[in-house]
Amino acid sequence: MPTIPVPALEQICADTFERAGSSREEAVRVARSLIGANLTGHDSHGVIRVPRYVDWVKTGDITPNQTVRLIVDTPALAVVDGRYGFGQTVAPEAVRVGVAKCKATGLAAVSLRDAGHIGRIGEWAEMAAAEGLVSIHFVTASGSILVAPFGAAERRLSTAPFSVGIPRDNAEPVILDFATSLVAEGKVMVASQGGKKLPAGALIGPDGELSTDPAELYGPLVEGGPRDSMKGKGAIRAFGEHKGSGLAFMCEILGGSLTGTKATGPGRRFANGMFSIYVDPRRIDPEHVFDADVARYIAYFKSAKPVKGVTEVLVPGESERRMRADRTQNGVPLSDETWEAIKGAARNVGASVPAI
Ligand code: NAD
Question: Is residue 101 part of a domain?
Answer without folding.
Answer: yes
